[in-house]
Amino acid sequence: RRHRALFAPIALYSKKIKDVKELKKGDTITIPNDPANGGRALQLLAGAGLLKLKEGVGHAATVEDIIDNPLRLRIVEVEAATLPRTLDDARAAVINQTYALPAGLNPVKDSLLIESKDSPYANMVAIRTGDNRPELVELNNALHTPEVKQFILEHYKGSLIPSF
């Protein structure tokens, strides 16, 4: 059974531009090279109208699924942990919250584009139906207290969004 979740959005950042409308033909955008987050990054760019992807690929999209790229953006896949460092060279980078926050980037305040809150990617506590072990119930209850919610909001500065 599913329990309330935390949402850690993926977002597009840049040190060179303040709006996606400033992207120019041939600009380089770096994205995560792992399948799950690379697909999320491409969906983010497609959702902004920067790319068009093959019908039905969803979050499993790869760069090979790009069927229209009006600005001929150069999409470069790199190790997710190195994405913040690519901002010095690339025009923009799609960076996971996991790596953005330690680099001083807050997806809520600093991004040009941010993943929608209805993204299927969320962190959650999941307990099998009927598994009522006291330690699991206690963990689930502890994670969903007002104190934990306040800690998340303060510590993650809005970049990790509790949905409980």
Description:
This protein has 164 residues and is of the alpha+beta class. The chain folds into two domains: 9-114, 3-Layer(aba) Sandwich (D-Maltodextrin-Binding Protein, domain 2), CATH 3.40.190.10; 123-162, no CATH class. The chain contains six helices and ten strands. It has helices at 35-47, 83-86, 97-100, 107-110, 134-143, 146-155, and strands at 2-7, 11-13, 28-32, 52-53, 66-68, 74-78, 92-95, 113-114, 123-126, 161-162. The strands form three sheets. The protein has a five-stranded mixed beta sheet.
What is the residue-mean pLDDT, rounded to a whole number?
A: 89
The first-level CATH class of the largest domain is given as: Alpha Beta
Q: What letter string, H or E per element, gives the SSE order?
A: EEEHEEEHEHHEEHHE
Task: List the domain count as a whole number.
Answer: 2
User: Any idea of the CATH topology of the largest domain?
Assistant: D-Maltodextrin-Binding Protein, domain 2
Read across the widest sheet, the strand sequence of neighbours is 6-3-7-2-8
Strand content: 15-25%
Number of strands: 10
Assembly classification: single chain
The secondary structure category is: alpha+beta
Task: Note the total helix count.
Answer: 6
Helical amount: 25-40%
Largest sheet: 5 strands, mixed
Rg is: 18 Å
Q: What is the name of the CATH architecture of the largest domain?
A: 3-Layer(aba) Sandwich
Distance between the termini: 15 Å
Unreliable residue runs:
none
